[in-house]
Design the sequence.
């Protein structure tokens, strides 16, 4: 009895997937939730901010993991020196960026 119900369910899912995928040359055998997930992900991926958000997530995760690895490999004093040096490097880079890009933000009204 159980096999006949599961066979009916499997056939109805296959029929509904074939009906939903009309117009495609290949019969779609993915479940509905997977198809919906793919559609939502493709809409998100084509959004304007998705690439920037992904880039920021990768950069933040890399920075965090680097800190964890160095923190595990060094003593507290060495890790403190690393973080101090890293902060100084970030400060100098932001100062350089400000000095270079600030003149381009001035609006000349002539």
Sequence:
């Amino acid at each position: 009895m159980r096999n006949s119900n599961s066979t009916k369910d499997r056939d109805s899912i296959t029929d509904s997937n074939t009906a939903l995928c009309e117009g495609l040359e290949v019969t779609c055998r993915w479940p509905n939730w997977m198809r919906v997930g793919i559609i939502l992900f493709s809409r998100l991926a084509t959004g304007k901010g998705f690439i920037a958000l992904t880039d920021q997530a990768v950069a933040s995760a890399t920075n965090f993991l680097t800190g964890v690895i160095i923190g595990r490999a060094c003593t507290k004093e060495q890790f403190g020196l690393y973080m101090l040096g890293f902060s100084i490097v970030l400060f100098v880079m932001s100062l350089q960026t400000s000095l270079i890009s600030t003149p381009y933000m001035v609006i000349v009204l002539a």
Summary: Residues 76-101 form the longest helix (26 residues). The chain has two domains: 2-45, 50-103.
